[in-house]
Amino acid sequence: MLTLAGEVRSHYTGLDERIATLASEDMAERQRTLERFFLLQGITFTVYGAESSTERIIPTDLLPRIIPAEEWATIEKGLTQRLKALNMFLADIYGEQQILMDGVVPRDLVLMAPSYRREMQNLYVPHQAYANVCGSDLIRQPDGAFAVLEDNLRVPSGVSYMLANREASKRTFPGTFRASNVRPIDRYPDLLLSTLKGMAADWRPNPQVVVLTPGVYNSAYYEHAYLARLMGAPLVEGRDLVVHDNMVYMRTTTGLRRIDVIYRRVDDDFIDPLTFRRDSGLGVAGLFNAYRAGNVVICNAPGTGVADDKAVYAYVPEIIKYYLGEDAILPNIETFLCREPAQLSHVLANLDKLVVKAVGASGGYGMLIGPHASAKERSDFADALRADPANYIAQPTIQLSTAPCLIDGEIDPRHVDLRPFILSGEKITVTPGALTRVALKKGSLVVNSSQGGGSKDTWILAGDTEEAQP
To answer: Per the database record, which ranges form the Circularly permuted ATP-grasp type domain (predicted)?
Structure first.
């Protein structure tokens, strides 16, 4: 919000002027209004491993993050470029594997990745759109430019919080919002439904879409139900679906109804007990055979996780160059591959300065933040690195940028990152908004909701020729 000289940045002027007119109690009341909205909407999240197993309202900050149009234009181009290349990469590694034969990405790194699915080899995916919904995590670097921290191509979550934050934000700062020329995100559910239907439109004139959820005990169940309601699509669990003659049907009170597109919010391992994990009770027996026969589309496609593997991430700039002949618009963070002996030695010698992550983990799990870890935690992690170096990567400790937050009645900076959402089907669309995730604990760098983080609304300002929020 402020420059190093303490001056208010131009795109924050309107918000700053409004805050200056509000007393502490006024701000506190607006925060309570926002929390009441989330409570009435049932917007919850489960923090696994917490002392209480009950769901809680996702922590949400009152003050929006504001991004000017020119910055967003670069982000939009960079994310479009990145997802286009990653979809081409997935089509290649599950097809001719030319990029592996050319040695751009090590063959064993891909084929031995836990998320690589041999069952997907040579299967047809409409429009070569393997990752239909992507949520890439961006951070602002010290020079002000954005970089990609990681890609999320499996079952990325958080878009419902982006939409809910916007509804709440319009209630808490209505005048400032209207005056700020903010781009709309209301069409996201329609764009998502259109993208999903477009995956089967070539062979079914009006495809039936369903949202497949693991059930009410999943931490993001609210999002599954919320998106299904906004799209007008049935929300189903595995037990609601049945496969006959390689066709997928939904059980209804009037009989079986054929399903064409499944927006699955269930991990690969659990979608079909006949193909993947036999002990899964979340999926549908025979679903993958129906998919293999081309009678149903699963979005995102099984096996997309290999493209957001944290070791493959290190090669994304080379992947973009290989397929598109372009330099990456959004750079990566420097990454050390522990599978390389020289880089492993460097990581072991600098554990107190680095962040170490398991290549297949997500949600803030399986990682070590060296500067904040105890000597014993670093020692234990060093043993794990030596035992299985290929399972880990390391990155410098990133000093995330900060945004103003209302903390105990006072405006205080907290570290943030940015998760925009990109849709990919017949074309690639970047939603003109994002989920800003906030590390609410002072000094913390962990923004994941599953690790006690929170969120705030993100205002993308419209340019001269762009549509603003009504």
So the answer is: 64-439
Q: Which helix (H) or strand (E) holds 223?
A: helix 221-231
Provide the CATH number for the domain around residue 387.
Answer: 3.30.1490.270
Domain check: are 286 and 339 in the same one? no
Looking up tokens 């805050």, which residue turns up?
Answer: 19
Query: How many distinct structural domains can be found in the chain?
Result: 2
Q: Is residue 280 in some structural domain?
A: yes
Q: What angle do CA 38, 67, 175 make, to 5 degrees?
A: 55
pLDDT at 391 over 80: yes
Helix axes 316-324, 69-93, angle to 10 degrees: 80
User: Tens of pLDDT along 235-287?
Assistant: 999 999 999 999 999 999 999 999 999 999 999 999 999 999 999 989 999 99
Q: Please give the residue range of the domain that contains residue 373.
A: 334-397
132-161 in b/e burial notation, b at 16+ Cβ within 10 A? bbbbbbbbbeeeeebbbbbbbbbbbbbbbb
pLDDT at 282: 92
DSSP category for residue 37: H
Alpha-carbon gap, residue 122 to 116, rounded angstroms: 13
Give dist(CA 273, CA 284) in Å, integer. 7
Sort strands 261-264 and 209-212 into parallel, antiparallel or unpaired: parallel
User: How far from 23 is each of 18, 19, 173, 409, 411, CA to CA, in Å?
Assistant: 11, 8, 14, 10, 12
Rounded to 5°, the CA angle 227-229-234 comes to: 95
Please tell me the distance from the alpha carbon of residue 164 to that of residue 283, in angstroms, as a whole number: 29
Q: Is residue 251 part of a domain?
A: yes
Q: Which residues contact 6 (CB under 8 A, 6 or more apart)?
A: none
Backbone φ, ψ for residue 367 (5° rounding): -135, 160
Provide the 3-class DSSP secondary structure of residue 255: strand
DSSP per position, 278-307: TT-SSS-TTHHHHHHTTSSEEESPTTGGGG
Residue-by-residue DSSP string for 320-363: HHHHHSS--SSPBPP-EETTSHHHHHHHHHTTTTEEEEETT--T
Selection from 74, 38, 76, 64 nearest residue 182 by Cα: 64
In whole angstroms, give the CA distance from residue 80 to residue 326.
13
| Cβ neighbours around 470 below 10 Å, total | 6
Task: Report whether the peptide linkage leading into residue 300 is cis, meaning its omega lies within 30 degrees of zero.
Answer: yes
